[in-house]
Amino acid sequence: MLYHVRMDVHLPPDMDADEKAALLEREKAYSQQLQREGKWPHIWRIAGEYANFSILDVDSHDEVHQLLSGLPLFGYMDITVTPLAKHPSDIKD
Amino acid sequence: MLYHVRMDVHLPPDMDADEKAALLEREKAYSQQLQREGKWPHIWRIAGEYANFSILDVDSHDEVHQLLSGLPLFGYMDITVTPLAKHPSDIKD
Amino acid sequence: MLYHVRMDVHLPPDMDADEKAALLEREKAYSQQLQREGKWPHIWRIAGEYANFSILDVDSHDEVHQLLSGLPLFGYMDITVTPLAKHPSDIKD
Amino acid sequence: MLYHVRMDVHLPPDMDADEKAALLEREKAYSQQLQREGKWPHIWRIAGEYANFSILDVDSHDEVHQLLSGLPLFGYMDITVTPLAKHPSDIKD
Amino acid sequence: MLYHVRMDVHLPPDMDADEKAALLEREKAYSQQLQREGKWPHIWRIAGEYANFSILDVDSHDEVHQLLSGLPLFGYMDITVTPLAKHPSDIKD
Amino acid sequence: MLYHVRMDVHLPPDMDADEKAALLEREKAYSQQLQREGKWPHIWRIAGEYANFSILDVDSHDEVHQLLSGLPLFGYMDITVTPLAKHPSDIKD
Amino acid sequence: MLYHVRMDVHLPPDMDADEKAALLEREKAYSQQLQREGKWPHIWRIAGEYANFSILDVDSHDEVHQLLSGLPLFGYMDITVTPLAKHPSDIKD
Amino acid sequence: MLYHVRMDVHLPPDMDADEKAALLEREKAYSQQLQREGKWPHIWRIAGEYANFSILDVDSHDEVHQLLSGLPLFGYMDITVTPLAKHPSDIKD
Amino acid sequence: MLYHVRMDVHLPPDMDADEKAALLEREKAYSQQLQREGKWPHIWRIAGEYANFSILDVDSHDEVHQLLSGLPLFGYMDITVTPLAKHPSDIKD
Amino acid sequence: MLYHVRMDVHLPPDMDADEKAALLEREKAYSQQLQREGKWPHIWRIAGEYANFSILDVDSHDEVHQLLSGLPLFGYMDITVTPLAKHPSDIKD
Fold this sequence. Notes:
elongated
């Protein structure tokens, strides 16, 4: 099932540089693993903002929460999750 | 280039049924033509709302405006357009 | 799966009384049928407002959209849908 | 009487880990005790957010305030309380 | 139990004058009856706005909904209801 | 003259306990003195929130500002003040 | 006592021209009479909007409500009233 | 002096086609005349919305109000005006 | 030209007392000097809030920005500036 | 292609003066270089606020994100980006 997610990241500007780099590295690895597993089919940068729109494809609300709350950046994020249904005009099966 | 679009439709509840059906038919045909042309790669129904998230893939802001303002339902919609950049974690080329 | 739904109803104050009564009758029958089927485990009136909080229990986003967009009052409603996961403190299995 | 409550938790990301674990432990015990007493019939995690929707069943506004302001996490929360009445379509007695 | 209520009235400016006068007359009588019964201890006009703050004193959420949804002006109102608890500084018993 | 006031208190969760207790003690004494003087006829706790609705009865805007800005908690509060007029339905003189 | 007032006017675009002209004439006369009486010391047009900021100088909340609710345009307005106190930096007596 | 203006147009979807065409024709002529006079140096379409951002260059607030309130579409618009100062980084004189 | 300004001050509650006193002293002197020069004809305290409405009378947007950004408290303020035009009902020349 | 950008800067009031001066120096140089390259045709100070409206002229969403996220002040900013299309009334080619 598809979930539309908006993630806004708020890192303190005076965060220790090494700590920040390590955190972002873990975040990238975490996300790319899920992308390879097909659970995170789309991730787009909102141009000009430290935020992204993503589409997650998982089997339940529990799994979407587990996935998102497991993000290394979770504690620095505002997140909104919107369930997506099939649109009647969608030509894809 | 990718644009994230949210469209909320507000049709008057007491709209003439035939007029409404014809309007929606034209809207569907318009959208599906653009989908076939690859300009409208994604359209998802926001579950529970008369609204959708879409991803449009066109070459310029002028084209995205032309496409959206040409929607038969345009006059009944609230629309927000957000430009999308490539996310550094995106594993797709 | 559980979905939290808020529904705000906006009926025109000068709506024809008979039409309104018939519409509400259909709405009640529609809802109660789904409640009997176990798909609508909770519906509460927000005190003082023509609105309700509901918990729906269905198998997919498509089904929750189908259920909500099929409401006789759908065209007169503002609806927000929030997916619910199991809370770590919840003592229920 | 039933109260619908939304609780959003904002813990500082750099909170001491042990302190945080102890606080959450107390929060869980506090909530589960009230659940066993039947005063907290429902608690759901809002998928993707550090927030929950809950239904509390207590006898007065004073009691609901006492219950909520006694939460170990109270000082880190934004809370909204909405009184719930019986919905005319509710098939439950 | 005390409920704080804000009521904003939106009457169509071109409403028939007699109809409006009759409606307001019924509203006044309805409110004053409840005030005499002690269920509506306070009603204040928000200066400059067609709105009021009220304090209702009733025994349950069902009763507060019944009271408010029975207002002749209910269909023309935006209403927000907030449950009130005893304040620790309140010198009144 | 009556003023409706909403006060939301935001104390830092990690405030020194003694300092907090002393501050709240001063706040309570300050409020109760004004209540005894009849300038603060009502104070209600908004159930579930560190906030209150109050009705102040003073002779001028200057006095209401002086009263509120003199609150020991003033620096930790968001405050909104709304002037109240007599409601045409109010049965009290 | 001084009250800061914002008035936003929403006239239906298809209002009868003569009716509109007469209404605005009455509004202007009403306002200018109060200005001459010193009760309406300031009225400024918010540039680009059908709205104004005004300062009213009257003796009570009741009077400010009476003045504003008596405006011929009252039914077409959104109004917000804010009580003003003397600023400690104000060099005027 | 420069003013940043956002104009959102809300035309009733069922407006008479001829009337609408004539109105838009007058609007276009009005705007283009001011552009030729150098008072309206920039007008951009907000992609996907019936709205524009404009930069007006006039000598006073009175003139900017006169210009905007004279727009044929003024009665169908939400307008926000923001005064612009020279930015310290601006390399233009 | 007249500008309507709203200034909301947010000073950290735990600011050093002497530093705060000195800052406010500079702010008062700065404002009163401009008042004496006729550039700040009105400053009113919003009753109950650490905020003010002001009317500034200066010759350009650059000057209003210079004036406001020069306020000692500027870094602790949220400021909104609205250009004011002459109201057609204003009886003052 | 043109992008409308609003940038609101939030620098901590107690930031080290030298650090702040150096940061602003880098920001100015960064912006002026892009202005000289024709990628940043307009930058205006929003009068009274530590914010600006800018028009960027770049070839893609990726480039606009790269440009904005490269701003030395990026971590202290709230940014909104709006794609601009050609307005039908625009007399410029």
